[in-house]
Amino acid sequence: MAKRLVLFDPAVFVAGRDYQIFLRVGADCAVSVEIDGKRFFDHANGVIRTRTRIHRVTVPQTALDKTQKYTVVVSPLIERKPYFSRFAPEERLDYPFHPVPQENINVYHIADAHGRSTHAIRSAAAFGKQIDLLVLNGDIVNSADRLTDIDTIYRLSQAITHGSIPVVCVRGNHDLRGRYAEQFGDYIPTVDGKTYYTLRAGGLWAIVLDTGEDKPDNHPEYGGTICCEPFRREETAFLQRVVAHADSEYNAPGVTHKLVIAHNPVTNVAEPPFDIEQDLFRQWAALLKNDVRPELFLAGHYHRCFVSDPGSAFDTLGQACPVVVGAKPEGGKAFTGCGITLKKDKPDIAFYRG
Q: How far apart are alpha carbons 41 and 270 in whole angstroms?
């Protein structure tokens, strides 16, 4: 029953200091995760959730990293009543798990799949290495108009990770469009409900920035549905708080690599009407350059693959580090993504076409 009910293998998203295990289902059920005999539930303030098509179970990163295996427990709902609700017998799905190492971290980066998965999956296979961390960096969907659009996220995660390695999932500008856009945060990891946050995974520390839409809020294309400018002001305050707590963030013991992950490489000023928020993005760039000092900035958005070093023609607001723009969709013909190995001396960066 669980195999028919569960549409994809779980996606083990990393956000903050936890893993958020997402399970996409096709009917009402209860979902929990068991690690070393302890059960973690998808619940709403103590009430087990059943009337949803996406389940999120948050588990401590330390627990899963230690056991390196977990069990998803699915209980199909027969009838939910005020008293004596009924479930079919539970089904148990076992998965191994491979935490991110401290060093020699293989990262594969995909953005701008725009609802197509086949060639993006092939590009990851062309990387030819054991992937330690998958980064889905925005515009994986073409729009958030249907749940089946959002399924591209879980389809890519299943094919590349099989529920067994961590995934970073970032919101892109196309994810802010469509009937499910306002609920998109229910389908990807968040921290305290926010789509921007920091994370730890093995020796990696990263800051995930949500760059929002790519034109002014009042652009007619949005039809009055966007207010990203005040959203980015809140995000600026978050970035300032991260810098204020550097010793527990990017300067914490055990951090061997630091990344910025964002869909839009905001240190480049594009042509109008895409030349938004220059003063604010210059402020972000200064905080990253003077305080965080990351190793790489991973981005997509431009549908190209290249590396921009600080001071290049692409750098108009002051890059803190090399910017890797690593996603080139070619309609339904091909897709190029980016494989990165983070090492002690210098990262290896290459692009792979599938």
A: 45
Helices (H), 34-117: 61-67
Counted residue by residue, the chain has a size of 354
Judged by DSSP in three states, 265 sits in coil
Say what the pTM is: 0.97
For 104: left if phi > 0, alpha if psi spans -120 to 50, otherwise beta; the answer is left
* Domain CATH code at residue 24: 2.60.40
pLDDT for position 231: 98
> Cα dist. 313→113, 309, 316, 319, 323 in Å?
26, 9, 7, 11, 12
Q: What interhelical angle do 147-161 and 118-127 show, nearest 10?
A: 20
Q: Token pair of 125, please? A: 């296979």
- Whose CA is closest to 110, among 96, 130, 89, 131? 131
For residue 228, give every residue at least 6 positions away whose Cβ sits within 8 Å of its Cβ, in sequence order, or none: 176, 212, 213, 217
Residue pLDDT, tens place only, 68-126? 999 999 999 999 999 999 999 999 999 999 999 999 999 999 999 999 999 999 999 99
- Verify that 118 and 266 share a domain, yes or no: yes
Residues 290, 251, single domain; the answer is: yes
* 224 in Cβ contact with 217 (< 8 Å): no
Count helices and strands (H / E) in the chain: 6, 21
* φ and ψ at residue 315, rounded to 5 degrees: -90, 100
Q: How far apart are CA 200 and CA 115, in angstroms?
A: 28
Structural domain harbouring 239: 105-353
- Do residues 109 and 79 both lie within one domain? no
